[in-house]
Each structure stands twice: as C-alpha cells, then as structure tokens.
Amino acid sequence: MIVPLSIPSPPEGVWHLGPFPIRAYALCILAGIGVAVWMGERRWKARGGAPGVVESVSLWMVPFGIVGGRLYHVVTDPELYFTTGRNPWNAFKIWDGGLGIWGAVLLGGVGALIGARRAGVPLPPLADAIAPGIAVAQAFGRWGNWFNQELFGRPTTLPWGLSIDPAHRPGCRQVIWPHCLHEFWLHLTA
User: What's the total number of domains in the chain?
Assistant: First the structure.
C-alpha cells in the first residue's frame, strides 16, 4: 500500500550503459569518498598542513576501508555465503552488495595510519581534519541505500514513511552463528 505523502523509492538502482551496469550505490559511495577527501584536504590546509597530504593518505585509507567494509559485511551476514547451497566465493563479489561502515572505519583507520606514517605526518591532527568528511561520506552512502531500497525501519502509515517495493521488503531472517559456522566448515571439508 502506498501511503499518500509518503517518500517514494526509486524504481531503479542500476542503469546500463551498453553492457556496463552503472550502480547508484557505487556512485553515491564514490561521491562520498570524493567529498570526504576534498573536505579533509581543505581542513588539513586550514590548520597549516602541506597540500596533497590527505589525497596521498586516501590512497591507503580508501582501499583499506573498502576491504574492511566488505569483511564486516561477510562476518556479520555469514549465512549469505557459508550455509548449505551458498557459494563461499561469492563473498568476494563486492559488486553484488554488502559493505559495513564499522569495518570500513576500522580498516580505513589502519590505512590512514600507514598513509600518515609514509607522509611523515602525525595521525591525530590528520584524523581530526578528515573526521567530518567521513561523516558526510556516510550520509552519501545512505543515499545509495535509498536507491537499493535497503536499510529502512518497520512498516508505518505515517506520511513521512518510505515506500518500499514488495520485492525489497525482507522476510524474517535470523542469524544463528554456530549453525552458519558449522555449515561453512562442512562446505570446506566436503
């Protein structure tokens, strides 16, 4: 049921440019990264830092963050990859979705530490310069979730409710860790 005055969700999150899929979620993530680096660079220079440092550090921080985000998703949703009938190699298919911000922040921080050491700058003032940009990048990522029709609350009839297509509404899902790990072990030893 569509509630009058509800917020509509986009009907498409993927557009095709010939054989190439263009994913709205990926565009939002990339835009967020770009804005975060731009903001961090401006803040770093405003506090007297050398130009180009944040851009240099981001070459370490961003790949580490993407890997961390994917690891977090795989660890927190193991039933998608490690249960009967699932292919564990699909855990590497990042284009099929699944990034977790906490893993991205954790390993992105490790990347920032490596990048800061290589650039010869102390991490605390650099982290202070880039932190607001990371929050803004997270907001850009939420727009990607809107395009994918994911990460929404429970059903409501309130006018500010988000309309979600029936195909995107979740069924009941319960993660049972020991069962998932047992299935993963059976798959590996089969």
Answer: 1
Tokens linked to 16 = 């095709």
If DSSP codes are grouped into helix, strand and coil, which group holds residue 147?
helix
Domain limits for position 38: 14-189
* Residue 120 maps to a domain: yes
Closest CA to 121 of 177, 62, 40, 65: 40
Residue 160 has pLDDT above 70, yes or no: yes
Q: Long-range pairs for 36-44 at CB < 8 Å and ≥24 separation?
A: 36/130, 36/133, 36/134, 36/136, 36/137, 37/133, 38/133, 39/130, 39/132, 39/133, 39/136, 40/129, 40/130, 40/133, 43/128, 43/129, 43/130, 43/132, 43/133, 44/126, 44/129, 44/130
Percent of the chain topping pLDDT 90: 62
Cβ–Cβ under 8 Å, residues 25 and 148: yes
Inter-residue contact 7 to 142 (CB < 8 Å): no
Q: Whole-angstrom Cα distance, residue 119 to residue 126?
A: 11
pLDDT score for 129: 97
Phi, psi of 49 (to 5 degrees): -75, 155
